[in-house]
Amino acid sequence: MADELHSVVHNDEGQYSTWPADRELPAGWHRSGFTGPRNDCLDHVEKVWTDLRPASLRAATEQAGNRD
Q1: Is 19 strand, coil or helix?
Q2: Segments making up each domain of the chain, as ranges
Q3: Which of 8, 67, 62 minimizes the C-alpha distance to 38?
Q4: Do the beta carbons of residue 6 and residue 31 sit within 8 Å?
Q5: Burial class, 49, CB count within 10 angstroms (exposed 0-12 / middle 13-18 / buried 19+)
Q6: What does the alpha-carbon distance between residue 19 and residue 41 come to, in Å, rounded to a whole number?
Q7: How many degrees, rounded to 5, is the angle at CA 4 between CA 3 and CA 9?
Q8: Which of 8, 33, 53, 68 is the most buried (most CB within 10 A)?
Q9: Model confidence at 53, in pLDDT bands (50, 70, 90)?
Q10: Which residues contact 28 (CB under 8 A, 6 or more apart)?
Q11: Which among 19, 14, 52 is positioned nearest to 38, based on CA atoms?
Q12: pLDDT tens by residue, 12-35
């Protein structure tokens, strides 16, 4: 199973995960374009997912900051 290909996936909240490349994605998830062994995918997620807050929280925080 170590050689099984995975895809990096993300949802509309900007959250990332890995998913077996040969499986249909759950509703609300999209492939990011990176595919490889699971550990490579996890390394990629670590590089690209730098702000772990959901997109809706980031937007609300930004909006609140603009009111000050």
Answers
A1: strand
A2: 5-67
A3: 8
A4: no
A5: middle
A6: 9
A7: 130
A8: 8
A9: confident
A10: 11, 12
A11: 19
A12: 999 999 999 999 999 999 999 999
| Domain 5-67 fold | Rubredoxin-like (3.90.820)
- Reported pTM: 0.80
Yes or no: say if 58 and 64 are a contact pair by the CB < 8 Å rule.
no
**Burial class (CB within 10 angstroms; exposed 0-12, middle 13-18, buried 19+) of 55:** middle
Model pLDDT, residue 68: 61
Beta strands in the chain (DSSP E): 5-11, 16-20, 29-37
Residue 57 has pLDDT above 80, yes or no: yes
* Amino acid at residue number 4: E
User: pLDDT at residue 1 above 60?
Assistant: no
Residues linked to residue 14 through DSSP beta bridges, in sequence order: none
